[in-house]
């Protein structure tokens, strides 16, 4: 198995509106859709569509949303052996307000996602150690996340940790992370450095390296990504986007692509360049899983980009 993703599965409830309401205000929206998502599911599908063999570990509820999510994961060719159904909690949901600008505001209710515990992960040690790479996020129980990352680290399995939703993490957990992929906000919370330009991004990344992270890969939106490790730092530019439809799953598409490229043997700079292209494609389509590109689409995009450079 190339990649094991331990992560959330959610049904996204997406409202489009000219702008998000202020506190105490009601605005009239433009449209509403249900869309399969969750950071774990998004990242697993992103990697699978790009050619990796992927196993997803997680939980859904015994409800219509859960059934739909399980079916989608199977249709994508992802190993679902370790996806289970909760007997007491509903499937996780995310309430998403998309503004006309493409920016989003998200509230996640984890539901069944929170039932995967550290004890469950201990039993799944052979699943983790049998992967080339472990991918995790922070939409599930933090103790479970710490346990899984610790198992991978002890066995020499590289770990990508996407620290979202943003929260403070222990130095012990960070010291077990091979690739940390925060955005500017998340990097600021983890490091204590406000990130608002490349210089402050470098400063925040340096703090995270001192906490034990091996490689910091900070996503910078349209500016691309910043790689910082013991060998130095590289700013990898992003790709121009003609029109941003929405930014839902843009970070997840980046992380799934990064995992796929690293397990395919690409250098870190090559992997990040490719992941930037995947993110650029994802923001050009609506939804989470529906926006994730195939390998053929990414290759065509990169060919066009090369031709105009």
UniProtKB/TrEMBL annotation:
GO terms for cellular component: cytosol. Activated by a monovalent cation that binds near, but not in, the active site. The most likely occupant of the site in vivo is potassium. Ion binding induces a conformational change that may alter substrate affinity. One of its GO terms (biological process) is lactose metabolic process. K(+) binds at residues 246, 248, 282, 285, 287, 291. NCBIfam families: D_ribokin_bact (TIGR02152). Requires a divalent cation, most likely magnesium in vivo, as an electrophilic catalyst to aid phosphoryl group transfer. It is the chelate of the metal and the nucleotide that is the actual substrate. Pfam families: PfkB (PF00294). Residues 2-294 form the Carbohydrate kinase PfkB domain. ATP binds at residues 183, 219-224, 251-252, 276. The keyword Magnesium applies. It comes from Paenibacillus donghaensis. HAMAP family: Ribokinase. PROSITE patterns: PFKB_KINASES_2. It catalyses: D-ribose + ATP = D-ribose 5-phosphate + ADP + H(+); D-tagatofuranose 6-phosphate + ATP = D-tagatofuranose 1,6-bisphosphate + ADP + H(+). Belongs to the carbohydrate kinase PfkB family. LacC subfamily. Belongs to the carbohydrate kinase PfkB family. Ribokinase subfamily. Catalyzes the phosphorylation of ribose at O-5 in a reaction requiring ATP and magnesium. The resulting D-ribose-5-phosphate can then be used either for sythesis of nucleotides, histidine, and tryptophan, or as a component of the pentose phosphate pathway. Its cofactor is Mg(2+). CDD domains: ribokinase. GO terms for molecular function: ATP binding; metal ion binding; ribokinase activity; tagatose-6-phosphate kinase activity. This is Ribokinase. Substrate binds at residues 10-12, 38-42, 139, 252. The lineage of its organism: Bacteria, Bacillati, Bacillota, Bacilli, Bacillales. The active site is at residue 252. Its EC number is 2.7.1.15. Keywords: ATP-binding, Carbohydrate metabolism, Cytoplasm, Kinase, Lactose metabolism, Magnesium, Metal-binding, Nucleotide-binding, Potassium, Transferase. The keyword Magnesium applies.
